[in-house]
Amino acid sequence: MSNMDMFTQQLKTIAEQSKLAESVAVFEQSRLYIDSNRDKLLKQYPNRWIAVHKEKVLATDKDLQTLVGIIRKSGVRLEYVAVELLTNEKTPVLLSVVL
Amino acid sequence: MKKPPSSSRLFSDSQKFEIHGFYRQGYPGGPWRPFVRVAVALPRFSVVRQVDMLVDSGADITALQPRDSLLLLEEAQFSQLRERHKVQGIGGFTNFFQEDAAIGFLLAGDRICWIPVVMNIAELKAPSGILSGLGNDVMQYGITHLDAINGTVKIELWLPHPLVT
User: Fold this and answer.
1) Number of compact structural domains in chain A
2) CB of A25 within 8 Å of any CB in chain B?
3) Which residue of A has its CA nearest to B130?
4) The domain containing residue A43 runs over which residues?
5) Disulfide check for B102: which of A39, B17, B49, B114 has CB 3.0–4.6 Å away?
6) Considering its fold, how many domains does chain B have in total?
7) What is the pLDDT of residues A22-78, one digit of tens each?
8) B94-118 pLDDT tens trace
9) Strand, coil or helix: B1
10) Whole-prediction pTM value?
11) What is the value of ipTM here, to two decimals?
12) How far is B63 from B43, CA to CA, in rounded Å?
């Protein structure tokens, strides 16, 4: 078996063990809830990180690491959860990076 | 198998994979930004997660920022990251760790087309609001269409030896 075949098999195993196929639809549902309700959520949770599972707000916090800690303790699979920073501050991005 | 467009940078036996992304607004009144949803796998940690990555045609590298890496790795695992290096960005330098990874593009029928990459994982003290970005290390394998008028993002990957699971 070539290195590439082994790598492919490793990726397949990780995807299966993580139930990636199963999480695709749930993550989409969670993400869609944020995108479809952004204005309402922004009014409720301005300048906060928000974690959504399916169509439910799981937790919010001003600090991302704290929020992730809350999600982990909740027992909900992380792969199912969409996380977003709700802000009405103008935060233009300039991401281009070079080595 | 479709024939690739004529170009000296393409292998004649390349296969085409068409990936669709989307536009999303970052803040009210702000410009709409192009994204593509991918699976990010870090084999050394046996983890994978879906990530919405900004299509960043100005970036040499694909980068994972804390907003996504924190959901992929536990905090203790960050201390196991190696190959720390500085990367020049607009506004200054940021420290990244390099990790062997794979970017997976979701195809029909629960299939995934994987591209091996060296993932640049920003250190945890990087600003949490920064977006993870898909760079030219991945986009060099295809043709990227960004249509802000119609809000569509399309990436055509032309791969000579695709890894499909």
Assistant:
1) 1
2) no
3) A93
4) 21-86
5) B114
6) 1
7) 899 999 999 999 999 999 999 999 999 999 999 999 999 999 999 999 999 999 999
8) 789 999 999 999 998 889 999 999 9
9) coil
10) 0.89
11) 0.88
12) 16
